[in-house]
């Protein structure tokens, strides 16, 4: 088997979400119209410039707490789908945070302990990049268990990117800033803070990044749009960068389409658009 089986499992998990089931029929029409029916590699890559418009296609204008929660799950799912679309045919897989699809070793490596309390970051999505010679399980039987065993053996060759996805930028920018600081820091025993468990730590990985991807849901003057604004400053120096579902605005945010070059370039054996075209032609991954 290949990374495509892991991608298949990751997307099955997304497709089971009620918000995805409700929104996908509308989003799919938007996406197909913007990408010539998923046949244009350039437009597929550039879809990251338009994810906000796709996301808002299902916007009812309802801002109660229930709709916000649903919106958050929808945004995480849409970002996961877009990542896996572009990564189709590569050795990189995007997953929503779930014990069912995220290998145990990677969950252990990113666990934060404070005293006797353990928690994982608010990682809505994570991307694992496997080395080219990675030995994927040969059969579907016990796939997740055997995949994790191989990851544990090859952790020094694994790259991991954690991506926090939020619809509202202003209300959430401080969260990825603080998590990124925690993962960067080295703590003495007196602090009671420890990164990793069961012998695994993010420092064992070949590469680790922490990113923020927002819609953003704000409109007009409420939307962060200047480098001097606090919401922008808070995510300006994340190890993995700050992105939104629109075209890049210098000093403010990068298009979601730029996350591949910035964080996951090692997954591609050729340029990104050529890789997408190969997946289209070969009907690989989400193009199958």
Describe the protein's architecture and organization:
The protein has 288 residues and is an alpha/beta fold. The chain has one domain. Helices cover 41% and strands 15% of the residues. It has twelve helices and nine strands. It has helices spanning 3-15, 18-34, 41-45, 51-56, 65-87, 104-109, 143-153, 169-172, 174-184, 230-234, 259-263, 272-282; strands spanning 92-96, 111-114, 117-120, 125-129, 159-166, 193-195, 207-214, 241-244, 254-255. The strands form two sheets. It has a six-stranded mixed sheet, sandwiched between helices. It has a three-stranded antiparallel sheet with strand order 3-2-6. α1 runs antiparallel to α5 (65-87). The model is unreliable at 62-69 (pLDDT under 50).
**In sequence order, what are the helices and strands, one letter per element?**
HHHHHEHEEEHEHHEEHEEHH
Oligomer description = single chain
Overall shape: globular
Sheet having the most strands? 6 strands, mixed
Strand order of the largest sheet: 1-4-5-7-8-9
In percent, how helical is the residue content?
Answer: 40-55%
Measured by DSSP, the beta-strand proportion falls in: 5-15%
Low-confidence segments, given as residue ranges, are: 62-69
Number of helices: 12
Number of domains: 1
Q: What descriptive keywords fit this protein?
A:
three-stranded antiparallel β-sheet, 9 strands, alpha/beta, 12 helices, six-stranded mixed β-sheet, globular, single chain, 288 residues
